[in-house]
């Protein structure tokens, strides 16, 4: 588990909001180079790494995808006094933002905090109002628009949460920013390590994608380029297991195993693929949770529609407090994500494995 923790802590702390995944990609590329071949980066910034299968005659290909970007903020206006008005990139709840530390990506990484009108001087009506983004700004300690400009901060500059990776009182529980989806990236890298030592029958193409948080854009380009026969998306999913949630409404629970997605707002998992995932998990005695959530979506929402349809699975690490500065996940869940995905990859033998047949 030490290797997993080391990778996760490093990836968690690298800034990489949508469209600005360069530093994350550079780290993953350094880790992946000794493990795969045919390494490419496309014009959007997606990274591809292949692990060739043992069967040289078999043309089947599985794409294992994990997005690199995290939710963040983009500057839309710089006040004369140097504070930065911003909009979110990805789904962020403004209620959690006041007082959160951020990194502004100017000429270098600049620490700041998200500010708002102090509660001590709010009117009674203002104190009842729910925060929205128009009430918030980033203060990174400069006194003027000109000073901000000299530091490379202007309209279009991006920022991310600034929070160190931490292990909790429980050895298996960790906290950090950007777990969505650096947990998926770590799972892909760990799986790549195993497959490079003992290749599967078919070729696996790992795709580390960009811009998922703003509309799964990189995944569409990646799937069109890769043209896989099947795909597995490694993600992080909301664990609605907080105390105020009725047990029947808890979508997932931390520590109960990977989330095997059945349906979301963008995809219904292809029936043969879903049955294959469930059968493999049960045969290998890997704990899993069936994930039904009519909201949200993943890169699979785009991937499964490409190239006349690609049978696509989503395997997620459950996480609490997603899209915040401190997401909590269970390391054993990630280990089981890795094990399940690897077993699925090793069990695919043919390009036609998930095809439907015309009955006589």
Short description:
By secondary structure, this protein is of the alpha+beta class. Helices cover 27% and strands 26% of the residues. The chain has two domains: 2-70 and 177-347, 3-Layer(aba) Sandwich (Aminopeptidase); 72-161, Peptidase M42, domain 2 (Elongation Factor Tu (Ef-tu), domain 3, Beta Barrel).
Describe this structure in words.
The longest helix has 19 residues, at 179-197. Helix 7 (271-283) crosses helix 9. This protein folds into 2 domains: 2-70 and 177-347, Zn peptidases (Aminopeptidase, 3-Layer(aba) Sandwich); 72-161, Peptidase M42, domain 2 (Elongation Factor Tu (Ef-tu), domain 3), CATH 2.40.30.40. It is built from 9 helices and 17 strands. Strand 10 and strand 11 (173-176) form a beta hairpin. Strands 1, 2, 3, 10, 11, 12, 13, 14, 15, 16 and 17 form an 11-stranded mixed β-sheet that branches. A 6-stranded antiparallel β-sheet has the order 5-4-9-6-7-8, with no helix packed on it. It is of the alpha+beta class.
